[in-house]
Each structure stands twice: as C-alpha cells, then as structure tokens.
C-alpha cells in the first residue's frame, strides 16, 4: 500500500512540476547584429547562449568594439560598470552613454556622430571624438 501511495505522489509531483513555466532569462536588447557579434567574440556572452544578459553586461569594465561596422550601440546602457569604451571606426550617428556612470575613457572617433550624450558621465577623463 505504501508503495502505491509513493508512486501516486511521484506521478502527481511530476505532473505538477511539468505545468510550471520557466521564466525566460532577461536579456539586453541589442538590435545591431555587428555589435552583438563583437560582444560574443570578446567573450561577453559567458554561457555561450548567443544573448547578453544584464549580469553578463554588468561584469564588463573594458570594451573595444572598434572597426566592427556597428551603426547602433543600443544596449550599451546595460554595461553599468564600463570604465573604458572604444568604439571608433564604425558607422555610429548617435551615441548615448549617459547611463554608463563609471565611464572614464571614451574613444568614439571616426564615426558620423551628430549626437553624443555624456551628460551624466562625471567620471569621464578622456574623450576622443
């Protein structure tokens, strides 16, 4: 009798657990494939799943995506501990690093920038644009 109860409890537990939905991992929205590929090539995607999570972005302090044909750095705002950003020789027209408070060096030279927002970057020591 105890065995039957254990079997039924096991079946019930499996049934209940199979109804649980896994929450998808949060991900950083990076619409520019060249930017995403550059991040993956540099090992930012530490678990190799092809997406950048907020935790993976949080760990990055130095980023060099120069010469990668990037036209949009949307997603850079998730890299909150970024000290250095090198993004020269791309096709950027706008760059907003106002949420990257730790940034102290930025090289965005040789782009087509018409808008650059560094309004909150009080730690910024070196700017090349």
Automatic annotation (TrEMBL):
The UniProt record lists the keyword Repeat: yes
Keywords assigned by UniProt, alphabetized: Leucine-rich repeat, Repeat
Signal peptide positions on this chain: none
Record-level Gene Ontology MF annotations: signaling adaptor activity
The protein's name in its UniProt record: Uncharacterized protein
């Amino acid at each position: 009798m105890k065995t039957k109860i254990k079997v039924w409890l096991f079946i019930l537990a499996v049934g209940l657990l199979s109804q649980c939905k896994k929450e998808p991992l949060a991900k950083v929205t990076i619409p520019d494939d060249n930017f995403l590929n550059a991040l993956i090539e540099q090992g930012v995607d530490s678990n190799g799943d092809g997406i950048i999570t907020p935790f993976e972005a949080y760990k990055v302090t130095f980023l060099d995506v120069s010469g990668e044909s990037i036209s949009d750095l949307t997603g850079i705002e998730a890299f909150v501990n970024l000290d250095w950003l090198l993004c020269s020789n791309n096709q950027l027209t706008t760059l907003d690093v106002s949420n990257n408070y730790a940034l102290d060096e930025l090289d965005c030279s040789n782009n087509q920038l018409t808008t650059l927002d560094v309004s909150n970057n009080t730690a910024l020591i070196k700017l090349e644009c």
